[in-house]
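Hi everyone,

Forwarding the result from last night's run.
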Amino acid sequence: MKTWKNVARPGYFGKRRDEKVAELNAKYGRGDWRLTWVIDYEDQQRSLDFIQACIDFYEKSYLRYLEFKPAELDYICSFGECIDNSTTNIESGTDYTAQESWATHIQDIAIRNVLRLLGRKFKGPKNSLLIIRSTDSNGFRFGPGNVPFYDPSLITQPSMAPRWANKGSVEDFWQSNKWIQVFE
């Protein structure tokens, strides 16, 4: 009986996402591999697909980070919208699968979903954007490399956090627990 088997922790793809996917297709065959996020929980491995990992890990971390930070929530809501790497990110709304840009963007979608969960929304001018990206952006502190992961004990070691991300952050989890699985 064929099952999915963990074969490698690939780490950060970044701008090379499409190139990495092409390499994996060439190596394993299209449809015969997948990315999954794996946690060891109560002596069992749990494997989640992209959407479920976004909801269970990104959103949960952002929710726990923001739910008791009214000043941070007010700051976020003072903008008209949030983006990661392009104004086209807005078109993704709350759909994690709507990845129209050169790099996967999750934090903007997670924040939109968390605002909804907290009964909040953007109230600023539509052209006023919270940019959750580089150190010189107005939303840098809300980036996944800065927001703590809700349960650091679930982060697979050794850490595969990119150099720009803090250990114990959402990004640390995302890269450290990401696995390539093949169907065998």
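The radius of gyration is 17 Å.

Cheers,
N.
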